[in-house]
Amino acid sequence: MKYVSTRGYGPMSFTDILLEGLAPDGGLYVPESYPQLSTEDLPALREILVYEGYVRLAAEILALFIDDISFADLEQITQRAYTKAKFGTDIIAPVAPLEPGLWLAQLSQGPTAAFKDMAMQVLGQFFEFELARRDQWMTIVGATSGDTGSAAEFALLDANRVQVFMLSPLGRMTPFQRGQMYGINSERIVNITVPGTFDDCQDLVKDLNGDASFKEHYAIGAVNSINWARLVSQVVYYLSSFLQVSRGDAVSFSVPSGNFGNICAGHVARMIGIPIENLVCATNENNVLAEFFATGVYRVRASTETFVTSSPSMDISKASNFERFVFDLTGRDAAQTASLFAEALPSTGVIDIRDKPYASDPAQVYGFRTGVSTHHDRVATIADVYRRHGYLIDPHTADGVKVARQYRGAEPMIAMETALPVKFGKITLEAIGQVPPIPARFAQVLDAEQHTVLCDGGIDQLKQIIISRSIFR
Ligand SMILES: *Cc1c(COP(=O)(O)O)cnc(C)c1O
Protein backbone atom coordinates (compact mmCIF):
# COMPACT_ATOMS: atom_id res chain seq x y z
CA MET A 1 0.00 0.00 0.00
CA LYS A 2 1.48 3.30 -1.12
CA TYR A 3 0.43 6.84 -0.23
CA VAL A 4 0.08 9.89 -2.44
CA SER A 5 -0.55 13.55 -1.71
CA THR A 6 -3.99 14.97 -2.52
CA ARG A 7 -2.02 17.35 -4.78
CA GLY A 8 -0.08 14.64 -6.58
CA TYR A 9 3.21 14.05 -4.74
CA GLY A 10 4.31 10.47 -4.13
CA PRO A 11 4.09 7.51 -3.96
CA MET A 12 5.46 7.05 -0.43
CA SER A 13 5.38 4.21 2.07
CA PHE A 14 3.41 4.38 5.33
CA THR A 15 6.45 4.68 7.56
CA ASP A 16 7.77 7.55 5.43
CA ILE A 17 4.61 9.60 5.83
CA LEU A 18 4.22 8.62 9.51
CA LEU A 19 6.90 11.03 10.73
CA GLU A 20 5.93 13.82 8.32
CA GLY A 21 3.04 16.24 8.41
CA LEU A 22 2.01 17.83 5.15
CA ALA A 23 3.36 16.47 1.87
CA PRO A 24 6.06 18.67 0.27
CA ASP A 25 3.48 19.99 -2.21
CA GLY A 26 1.23 21.18 0.64
CA GLY A 27 -1.31 18.38 0.22
CA LEU A 28 -2.40 15.64 2.63
CA TYR A 29 -1.38 12.02 2.26
CA VAL A 30 -4.06 9.48 1.32
CA PRO A 31 -3.81 5.83 0.28
CA GLU A 32 -3.29 5.36 -3.45
CA SER A 33 -6.51 3.34 -3.46
CA TYR A 34 -8.86 2.18 -0.70
CA PRO A 35 -8.62 -1.45 0.38
CA GLN A 36 -11.97 -3.24 0.09
CA LEU A 37 -13.81 -5.39 2.61
CA SER A 38 -16.35 -7.80 1.17
CA THR A 39 -19.65 -8.67 2.82
CA GLU A 40 -18.13 -12.03 3.79
CA ASP A 41 -15.37 -10.26 5.70
CA LEU A 42 -17.78 -8.55 8.09
CA PRO A 43 -18.97 -11.68 9.96
CA ALA A 44 -15.33 -12.76 10.34
CA LEU A 45 -14.42 -9.34 11.75
CA ARG A 46 -17.38 -9.59 14.15
CA GLU A 47 -15.96 -12.87 15.46
CA ILE A 48 -12.59 -11.21 15.93
CA LEU A 49 -14.15 -8.36 17.91
CA VAL A 50 -16.24 -10.71 20.06
CA TYR A 51 -13.66 -13.42 20.73
CA GLU A 52 -10.35 -11.59 20.48
CA GLY A 53 -11.25 -7.99 21.18
CA TYR A 54 -10.64 -4.45 20.00
CA VAL A 55 -6.83 -4.74 20.01
CA ARG A 56 -6.89 -7.52 17.42
CA LEU A 57 -9.59 -5.84 15.34
CA ALA A 58 -7.49 -2.67 15.25
CA ALA A 59 -4.43 -4.60 14.04
CA GLU A 60 -6.53 -6.21 11.28
CA ILE A 61 -7.75 -2.84 10.01
CA LEU A 62 -4.34 -1.18 10.24
CA ALA A 63 -2.88 -4.11 8.26
CA LEU A 64 -5.23 -3.28 5.37
CA PHE A 65 -3.45 0.07 5.03
CA ILE A 66 0.10 -0.71 6.18
CA ASP A 67 2.42 -3.19 4.53
CA ASP A 68 5.79 -1.99 5.78
CA ILE A 69 5.18 -3.00 9.42
CA SER A 70 4.58 -6.70 10.14
CA PHE A 71 1.24 -7.89 11.49
CA ALA A 72 2.93 -9.07 14.70
CA ASP A 73 4.38 -5.58 15.22
CA LEU A 74 1.05 -3.93 14.45
CA GLU A 75 -0.57 -6.13 17.06
CA GLN A 76 2.07 -5.11 19.62
CA ILE A 77 1.40 -1.48 18.77
CA THR A 78 -2.37 -1.77 19.28
CA GLN A 79 -1.84 -3.89 22.41
CA ARG A 80 0.26 -1.16 24.01
CA ALA A 81 -2.09 1.59 22.86
CA TYR A 82 -5.36 0.05 24.05
CA THR A 83 -4.96 -1.37 27.53
CA LYS A 84 -7.61 -1.85 30.16
CA ALA A 85 -5.42 0.19 32.51
CA LYS A 86 -5.71 3.20 30.21
CA PHE A 87 -9.31 2.78 29.05
CA GLY A 88 -10.91 1.25 32.10
CA THR A 89 -12.65 -1.35 29.92
CA ASP A 90 -11.69 -4.36 27.80
CA ILE A 91 -14.13 -3.27 25.12
CA ILE A 92 -12.19 0.03 24.71
CA ALA A 93 -15.03 1.66 22.73
CA PRO A 94 -18.38 0.31 24.00
CA VAL A 95 -21.68 1.27 22.36
CA ALA A 96 -24.65 1.97 24.64
CA PRO A 97 -28.31 2.25 23.63
CA LEU A 98 -29.66 5.71 24.46
CA GLU A 99 -33.23 5.73 23.14
CA PRO A 100 -35.14 3.86 20.41
CA GLY A 101 -33.06 4.00 17.24
CA LEU A 102 -30.23 5.99 18.82
CA TRP A 103 -26.97 4.64 20.28
CA LEU A 104 -23.93 6.31 21.83
CA ALA A 105 -20.43 5.16 20.86
CA GLN A 106 -18.41 5.75 24.03
CA LEU A 107 -15.09 6.86 22.61
CA SER A 108 -13.94 8.87 25.62
CA GLN A 109 -12.88 6.20 28.09
CA GLY A 110 -9.16 6.91 27.59
CA PRO A 111 -6.63 8.70 29.80
CA THR A 112 -7.76 12.24 28.96
CA ALA A 113 -11.51 11.64 28.72
CA ALA A 114 -11.80 12.62 25.06
CA PHE A 115 -11.95 10.58 21.86
CA LYS A 116 -8.60 12.00 20.75
CA ASP A 117 -6.99 9.33 22.94
CA MET A 118 -8.28 6.67 20.51
CA ALA A 119 -5.95 7.91 17.78
CA MET A 120 -3.20 9.57 19.78
CA GLN A 121 -2.40 6.44 21.79
CA VAL A 122 -1.74 4.56 18.55
CA LEU A 123 0.27 7.44 17.07
CA GLY A 124 2.51 7.49 20.16
CA GLN A 125 3.21 3.76 19.77
CA PHE A 126 3.85 4.15 16.02
CA PHE A 127 6.38 6.93 16.72
CA GLU A 128 8.22 4.92 19.32
CA PHE A 129 8.29 1.85 17.07
CA GLU A 130 9.55 3.62 13.98
CA LEU A 131 12.06 5.84 15.78
CA ALA A 132 13.55 2.76 17.46
CA ARG A 133 13.75 0.98 14.12
CA ARG A 134 15.60 3.96 12.62
CA ASP A 135 17.57 4.65 15.80
CA GLN A 136 16.36 8.25 15.80
CA TRP A 137 14.65 10.60 18.26
CA MET A 138 12.18 13.42 17.77
CA THR A 139 11.10 16.66 19.43
CA ILE A 140 7.38 17.29 19.20
CA VAL A 141 6.46 20.96 19.34
CA GLY A 142 2.75 21.73 19.31
CA ALA A 143 0.09 24.21 20.32
CA THR A 144 -3.15 23.31 22.04
CA SER A 145 -6.31 24.91 23.31
CA GLY A 146 -7.05 21.86 25.46
CA ASP A 147 -7.87 18.35 24.29
CA THR A 148 -5.16 17.68 21.70
CA GLY A 149 -2.28 18.69 23.94
CA SER A 150 -3.24 16.51 26.85
CA ALA A 151 -4.07 13.53 24.61
CA ALA A 152 -0.62 13.88 22.97
CA GLU A 153 1.19 14.22 26.27
CA PHE A 154 -0.48 11.17 27.78
CA ALA A 155 0.23 9.18 24.62
CA LEU A 156 3.92 10.11 24.62
CA LEU A 157 4.53 9.98 28.37
CA ASP A 158 6.41 6.68 28.13
CA ALA A 159 7.97 7.17 24.71
CA ASN A 160 11.76 7.06 25.21
CA ARG A 161 12.56 8.60 21.86
CA VAL A 162 10.22 11.56 21.96
CA GLN A 163 10.24 14.78 23.95
CA VAL A 164 7.21 17.07 23.91
CA PHE A 165 7.09 20.87 24.12
CA MET A 166 3.44 21.91 24.22
CA LEU A 167 2.36 25.55 24.07
CA SER A 168 -0.93 26.57 25.64
CA PRO A 169 -2.60 29.94 26.19
CA LEU A 170 -1.97 31.14 29.75
CA GLY A 171 -5.12 30.93 31.88
CA ARG A 172 -7.49 30.07 29.04
CA MET A 173 -8.10 26.37 29.53
CA THR A 174 -10.60 24.87 31.97
CA PRO A 175 -9.30 24.00 35.46
CA PHE A 176 -9.60 20.30 34.63
CA GLN A 177 -7.63 20.65 31.41
CA ARG A 178 -4.93 22.65 33.22
CA GLY A 179 -4.73 20.16 36.07
CA GLN A 180 -4.45 17.29 33.65
CA MET A 181 -1.74 18.73 31.40
CA TYR A 182 0.30 20.74 33.85
CA GLY A 183 0.07 18.01 36.48
CA ILE A 184 2.45 15.85 34.46
CA ASN A 185 5.86 15.79 36.10
CA SER A 186 8.39 14.53 33.55
CA GLU A 187 11.42 15.97 31.80
CA ARG A 188 9.99 14.53 28.55
CA ILE A 189 6.90 16.71 28.73
CA VAL A 190 7.44 20.46 28.87
CA ASN A 191 4.31 22.59 29.16
CA ILE A 192 4.91 26.13 27.98
CA THR A 193 2.35 28.82 28.78
CA VAL A 194 2.02 31.80 26.47
CA PRO A 195 0.18 35.01 27.39
CA GLY A 196 -2.46 35.39 24.63
CA THR A 197 -4.68 33.07 22.64
CA PHE A 198 -4.36 29.67 20.98
CA ASP A 199 -3.59 31.47 17.71
CA ASP A 200 -0.61 33.18 19.36
CA CYS A 201 0.68 29.77 20.44
CA GLN A 202 0.22 28.39 16.96
CA ASP A 203 2.01 31.37 15.39
CA LEU A 204 5.03 30.71 17.60
CA VAL A 205 5.10 27.07 16.49
CA LYS A 206 4.90 28.17 12.87
CA ASP A 207 7.76 30.65 13.35
CA LEU A 208 9.84 27.95 14.94
CA ASN A 209 9.22 25.58 12.03
CA GLY A 210 10.28 28.38 9.69
CA ASP A 211 13.84 28.12 11.06
CA ALA A 212 15.02 25.16 8.99
CA SER A 213 18.36 24.63 10.71
CA PHE A 214 16.85 24.77 14.22
CA LYS A 215 14.13 22.40 13.07
CA GLU A 216 16.63 19.91 11.74
CA HIS A 217 19.00 20.16 14.69
CA TYR A 218 16.20 19.22 17.14
CA ALA A 219 14.34 16.91 14.73
CA ILE A 220 11.12 18.85 15.30
CA GLY A 221 7.90 17.05 14.43
CA ALA A 222 4.17 17.40 15.02
CA VAL A 223 1.14 15.40 16.15
CA ASN A 224 -1.56 17.36 14.34
CA SER A 225 -4.83 15.98 13.12
CA ILE A 226 -3.76 15.67 9.48
CA ASN A 227 -1.43 12.77 10.32
CA TRP A 228 -2.74 9.77 8.39
CA ALA A 229 -1.83 7.38 11.24
CA ARG A 230 -4.29 9.22 13.49
CA LEU A 231 -7.02 9.11 10.89
CA VAL A 232 -6.67 5.42 10.06
CA SER A 233 -6.75 4.50 13.77
CA GLN A 234 -10.16 6.15 13.93
CA VAL A 235 -11.58 3.94 11.18
CA VAL A 236 -11.44 1.04 13.65
CA TYR A 237 -14.09 2.38 16.01
CA TYR A 238 -16.51 3.00 13.14
CA LEU A 239 -16.20 -0.70 12.37
CA SER A 240 -16.40 -1.84 16.00
CA SER A 241 -19.46 0.37 16.58
CA PHE A 242 -21.13 -0.98 13.45
CA LEU A 243 -20.41 -4.56 14.53
CA GLN A 244 -21.86 -3.96 18.00
CA VAL A 245 -25.13 -2.54 16.70
CA SER A 246 -25.86 -4.28 13.38
CA ARG A 247 -25.92 -7.83 12.07
CA GLY A 248 -25.16 -6.53 8.58
CA ASP A 249 -27.61 -3.79 7.64
CA ALA A 250 -26.30 -0.25 7.27
CA VAL A 251 -26.16 2.18 10.20
CA SER A 252 -25.70 5.96 10.33
CA PHE A 253 -23.27 7.98 12.43
CA SER A 254 -23.58 11.47 13.88
CA VAL A 255 -20.23 13.16 14.44
CA PRO A 256 -19.52 16.40 16.35
CA SER A 257 -17.08 17.97 13.91
CA GLY A 258 -14.32 20.57 13.90
CA ASN A 259 -11.24 19.72 11.88
CA PHE A 260 -13.11 17.02 9.93
CA GLY A 261 -10.77 14.32 11.28
CA ASN A 262 -13.30 12.10 13.02
CA ILE A 263 -15.94 12.21 10.30
CA CYS A 264 -13.28 11.82 7.58
CA ALA A 265 -12.41 8.49 9.22
CA GLY A 266 -16.12 7.65 8.86
CA HIS A 267 -15.88 8.48 5.19
CA VAL A 268 -12.85 6.18 4.85
CA ALA A 269 -14.74 3.47 6.74
CA ARG A 270 -17.48 3.71 4.15
CA MET A 271 -15.01 3.72 1.26
CA ILE A 272 -13.52 0.41 2.44
CA GLY A 273 -16.96 -1.19 2.50
CA ILE A 274 -18.43 -0.78 5.99
CA PRO A 275 -22.20 -0.36 5.46
CA ILE A 276 -22.89 3.25 6.43
CA GLU A 277 -26.11 4.95 5.33
CA ASN A 278 -25.52 8.55 6.39
CA LEU A 279 -22.65 10.45 7.96
CA VAL A 280 -24.18 13.32 9.89
CA CYS A 281 -21.77 16.23 10.24
CA ALA A 282 -22.80 18.21 13.32
CA THR A 283 -21.18 21.59 13.92
CA ASN A 284 -21.60 24.27 16.56
CA GLU A 285 -21.96 27.99 15.79
CA ASN A 286 -18.72 27.68 13.80
CA ASN A 287 -20.55 26.22 10.85
CA VAL A 288 -17.95 26.15 8.05
CA LEU A 289 -18.65 22.48 7.36
CA ALA A 290 -22.42 22.61 7.76
CA GLU A 291 -22.50 25.48 5.30
CA PHE A 292 -20.48 23.48 2.79
CA PHE A 293 -22.71 20.41 2.94
CA ALA A 294 -25.80 22.59 2.72
CA THR A 295 -24.63 24.85 -0.12
CA GLY A 296 -21.51 23.48 -1.87
CA VAL A 297 -19.51 26.53 -0.82
CA TYR A 298 -16.65 26.15 1.66
CA ARG A 299 -15.77 29.52 3.13
CA VAL A 300 -12.85 29.72 5.55
CA ARG A 301 -13.44 32.15 8.43
CA ALA A 302 -11.05 34.78 9.77
CA SER A 303 -10.08 34.30 13.41
CA THR A 304 -12.21 37.33 14.27
CA GLU A 305 -15.19 35.46 12.77
CA THR A 306 -14.48 32.33 14.81
CA PHE A 307 -16.75 32.21 17.85
CA VAL A 308 -15.68 31.08 21.30
CA THR A 309 -18.40 28.57 22.22
CA SER A 310 -19.30 26.12 24.96
CA SER A 311 -18.15 23.23 22.72
CA PRO A 312 -14.65 24.69 22.34
CA SER A 313 -12.98 21.73 20.61
CA MET A 314 -15.18 22.44 17.58
CA ASP A 315 -14.28 26.13 17.38
CA ILE A 316 -12.43 26.09 14.08
CA SER A 317 -12.21 28.51 11.19
CA LYS A 318 -11.00 25.96 8.64
CA ALA A 319 -11.23 22.18 8.69
CA SER A 320 -7.73 20.83 8.19
CA ASN A 321 -8.75 17.34 6.99
CA PHE A 322 -11.35 18.56 4.53
CA GLU A 323 -8.98 18.37 1.54
CA ARG A 324 -8.96 14.57 1.82
CA PHE A 325 -12.71 14.46 1.30
CA VAL A 326 -12.63 16.92 -1.60
CA PHE A 327 -9.93 14.80 -3.26
CA ASP A 328 -12.38 11.87 -3.30
CA LEU A 329 -15.20 14.18 -4.36
CA THR A 330 -13.26 15.19 -7.49
CA GLY A 331 -12.84 11.52 -8.38
CA ARG A 332 -9.35 11.57 -6.80
CA ASP A 333 -8.12 14.20 -9.23
CA ALA A 334 -4.91 15.71 -7.78
CA ALA A 335 -4.76 18.54 -10.33
CA GLN A 336 -8.35 19.60 -9.51
CA THR A 337 -7.70 19.37 -5.78
CA ALA A 338 -4.50 21.41 -6.09
CA SER A 339 -6.27 24.08 -8.08
CA LEU A 340 -9.05 24.31 -5.46
CA PHE A 341 -6.80 24.38 -2.37
CA ALA A 342 -3.59 25.99 -3.64
CA GLU A 343 -5.16 28.55 -6.00
CA ALA A 344 -8.87 29.22 -5.48
CA LEU A 345 -8.81 29.08 -1.67
CA PRO A 346 -5.80 31.37 -1.06
CA SER A 347 -6.98 33.92 -3.64
CA THR A 348 -10.73 34.01 -2.86
CA GLY A 349 -11.04 32.44 0.60
CA VAL A 350 -13.63 30.10 -0.88
CA ILE A 351 -13.98 26.70 -2.50
CA ASP A 352 -17.11 26.65 -4.60
CA ILE A 353 -18.03 23.34 -6.18
CA ARG A 354 -21.62 24.19 -7.12
CA ASP A 355 -20.94 24.13 -10.85
CA LYS A 356 -18.71 21.06 -10.81
CA PRO A 357 -20.08 17.99 -12.57
CA TYR A 358 -19.13 15.74 -9.62
CA ALA A 359 -21.12 17.60 -7.01
CA SER A 360 -24.40 19.19 -7.96
CA ASP A 361 -25.53 18.31 -4.44
CA PRO A 362 -22.52 17.74 -2.17
CA ALA A 363 -24.67 16.33 0.61
CA GLN A 364 -25.88 13.61 -1.72
CA VAL A 365 -22.55 12.56 -3.16
CA TYR A 366 -21.45 10.45 -0.23
CA GLY A 367 -24.60 10.46 1.85
CA PHE A 368 -23.51 13.28 4.12
CA ARG A 369 -26.09 15.10 6.21
CA THR A 370 -25.48 18.21 8.23
CA GLY A 371 -26.84 20.43 10.97
CA VAL A 372 -25.89 23.21 13.38
CA SER A 373 -26.25 23.15 17.13
CA THR A 374 -26.03 26.29 19.29
CA HIS A 375 -25.34 26.94 22.96
CA HIS A 376 -29.07 26.88 23.61
CA ASP A 377 -29.36 23.49 21.86
CA ARG A 378 -26.46 22.06 23.86
CA VAL A 379 -27.93 23.11 27.18
CA ALA A 380 -31.37 21.77 26.19
CA THR A 381 -29.96 18.48 24.88
CA ILE A 382 -27.76 17.84 27.94
CA ALA A 383 -30.76 18.54 30.17
CA ASP A 384 -33.16 16.44 28.11
CA VAL A 385 -30.89 13.40 27.82
CA TYR A 386 -30.14 13.59 31.54
CA ARG A 387 -33.80 13.93 32.53
CA ARG A 388 -35.09 11.21 30.23
CA HIS A 389 -32.28 8.69 30.40
CA GLY A 390 -30.24 9.61 33.48
CA TYR A 391 -27.18 9.83 31.23
CA LEU A 392 -24.94 12.88 31.35
CA ILE A 393 -23.32 13.91 28.05
CA ASP A 394 -20.70 16.57 27.37
CA PRO A 395 -21.41 19.66 25.21
CA HIS A 396 -19.72 18.28 22.05
CA THR A 397 -21.64 15.04 22.26
CA ALA A 398 -24.75 17.14 22.81
CA ASP A 399 -24.17 18.88 19.46
CA GLY A 400 -23.98 15.44 17.84
CA VAL A 401 -27.10 14.11 19.57
CA LYS A 402 -29.07 17.24 18.73
CA VAL A 403 -28.37 16.92 15.02
CA ALA A 404 -28.65 13.10 15.09
CA ARG A 405 -32.24 13.41 16.27
CA GLN A 406 -33.02 15.51 13.17
CA TYR A 407 -31.98 12.70 10.86
CA ARG A 408 -33.29 9.63 12.63
CA GLY A 409 -34.45 7.16 9.97
CA ALA A 410 -35.22 3.45 9.75
CA GLU A 411 -31.57 2.50 10.24
CA PRO A 412 -29.80 2.60 13.64
CA MET A 413 -28.17 5.99 14.34
CA ILE A 414 -24.94 5.97 16.35
CA ALA A 415 -23.90 9.28 17.91
CA MET A 416 -20.20 9.66 18.71
CA GLU A 417 -19.46 10.56 22.34
CA THR A 418 -16.32 12.66 21.92
CA ALA A 419 -15.64 13.74 25.53
CA LEU A 420 -16.82 13.18 29.08
CA PRO A 421 -18.71 15.95 30.90
CA VAL A 422 -16.09 16.13 33.68
CA LYS A 423 -14.04 18.40 31.40
CA PHE A 424 -16.83 20.93 31.02
CA GLY A 425 -18.25 21.78 34.41
CA LYS A 426 -19.72 25.17 33.63
CA ILE A 427 -22.23 24.20 30.93
CA THR A 428 -23.15 21.05 32.84
CA LEU A 429 -24.06 23.20 35.84
CA GLU A 430 -26.13 25.46 33.59
CA ALA A 431 -27.97 22.48 32.06
CA ILE A 432 -28.76 20.29 35.06
CA GLY A 433 -28.03 22.49 38.07
CA GLN A 434 -25.06 20.48 39.27
CA VAL A 435 -21.45 20.00 38.30
CA PRO A 436 -20.49 16.71 36.64
CA PRO A 437 -19.25 13.91 38.88
CA ILE A 438 -15.50 13.32 38.77
CA PRO A 439 -14.75 9.72 37.74
CA ALA A 440 -12.52 8.02 40.32
CA ARG A 441 -9.55 7.84 37.98
CA PHE A 442 -9.51 11.64 37.69
CA ALA A 443 -9.97 12.34 41.41
CA GLN A 444 -6.45 13.76 41.85
CA VAL A 445 -6.39 15.92 38.72
CA LEU A 446 -7.36 19.22 40.31
CA ASP A 447 -5.01 18.80 43.27
CA ALA A 448 -1.84 17.85 41.42
CA GLU A 449 1.13 20.19 41.63
CA GLN A 450 1.44 22.00 38.27
CA HIS A 451 4.60 22.30 36.18
CA THR A 452 4.85 24.98 33.48
CA VAL A 453 7.40 27.27 31.88
CA LEU A 454 6.29 30.78 30.96
CA CYS A 455 7.22 32.05 27.51
CA ASP A 456 6.45 35.76 27.25
CA GLY A 457 9.50 36.68 25.17
CA GLY A 458 8.45 35.46 21.74
CA ILE A 459 10.27 33.11 19.41
CA ASP A 460 13.76 33.74 20.82
CA GLN A 461 12.68 32.75 24.29
CA LEU A 462 10.88 29.68 22.93
CA LYS A 463 14.10 28.55 21.27
CA GLN A 464 16.00 29.18 24.50
CA ILE A 465 13.56 26.99 26.42
CA ILE A 466 13.97 24.16 23.93
CA ILE A 467 17.78 24.50 23.95
CA SER A 468 18.00 24.43 27.73
CA ARG A 469 15.44 21.65 28.29
CA SER A 470 16.27 19.30 25.40
CA ILE A 471 17.18 15.84 26.65
CA PHE A 472 18.59 14.75 23.29
CA ARG A 473 20.98 17.64 22.54
C1 LIG B 1 -11.38 17.39 18.57
C2 LIG B 1 -12.75 17.27 19.10
C3 LIG B 1 -13.88 17.33 18.25
C4 LIG B 1 -13.78 17.59 16.76
O1 LIG B 1 -13.20 16.51 16.07
P1 LIG B 1 -12.58 16.71 14.60
O2 LIG B 1 -11.90 15.42 14.32
O3 LIG B 1 -11.61 17.85 14.72
O4 LIG B 1 -13.70 17.01 13.66
C5 LIG B 1 -15.14 17.14 18.81
N1 LIG B 1 -15.29 16.94 20.13
C6 LIG B 1 -14.23 16.88 20.98
C7 LIG B 1 -14.47 16.67 22.44
C8 LIG B 1 -12.92 17.04 20.50
O5 LIG B 1 -11.88 17.00 21.35
Structural notes for this entry:
With 473 residues, the chain is α/β, with parallel strands linked by helices. The chain has a domain at 95-111 and 228-432: Rossmann fold. It is built from 20 helices and 15 strands. The strands form four sheets. The protein has a six-stranded mixed beta sheet, sandwiched between helices. Strand 5, helix 7 and strand 6 (162-169) form a beta-alpha-beta unit. The longest helix is centred in the first third of the chain and has 19 residues, at 116-134. The chain is globular, with a radius of gyration of 21 Å. The mean pLDDT is 94. Bound molecules: pyridoxal-5'-phosphate.
Please state the CA-atom Rg, rounded to the nearest Å. 21 Å
Report how far apart the termini are: 35 Å
Mass-distribution shape? globular
Summed over residues and divided by their number, the pLDDT gives a mean of 94
Computed structural class: alpha/beta
Strand elements, count? 15
CATH architecture of the domain at 95-111 and 228-432: 3-Layer(aba) Sandwich
Helical content stands at 40-55%
Low-confidence residue ranges: none
Number of discrete helical segments: 20
% residues in beta strands: 5-15%
Largest sheet geometry: 6 strands, mixed
Return the CATH class of the domain at 95-111 and 228-432. Alpha Beta
What name is given to the CATH topology of the domain at 95-111 and 228-432?
Answer: Rossmann fold
Bound molecule types: pyridoxal-5'-phosphate
Biggest sheet strand order reads 3-4-14-9-10-13
